[in-house]
Amino acid sequence: MREKYEPVFGRCPPVLHLMWGLQHYVNQHSGTLKNIHTAAEYAKLLPRKAQSSRDSLESPGLIDDYLKETPERSPRVPGIVSSWKGFIKGEFFICPPEKIFDLYR
Question: Are 45 and 3 in contact (CB under 8 A)?
């Protein structure tokens, strides 16, 4: 198991910035992880360590509160973040297909 997880926050896809921002907001309100002051700091946490904050997302009201308190510039952002209310809890592995037919095996 890797001991250090450090994504390059500035070069990640925008959806990851949204996800980390929401999870950081949830962490601030739940107080589960101390000394995490920004979404960039939250993004550097090992996924297992950040689990306690993600577990707090089971309350869809937090997503609504995040959208009200965090004005975004893009009009698409509220729709993207709101769609996360129906998330499926679990552990998933995303692997890129090597061939086009790998998806249908």
Answer: no
pTM of the complete model: 0.69
CA dist 52 and 86 (Å) reads 19
Contact call for residues 30 and 56 (beta carbons, < 8 A) = yes
The per-residue pLDDT for range 22-36, each reduced to its tens digit, is 888 888 888 888 888
> How many Å apart are CA 60 and CA 87, to the nearest integer?
10
Answer for the pair 23, 54: CB distance below 8 angstroms, yes or no: yes
Helices 60-69 and 14-30 sit at what angle, rounded to 10 degrees?
A: 110
Domain definitions of the chain by residue range: 9-104
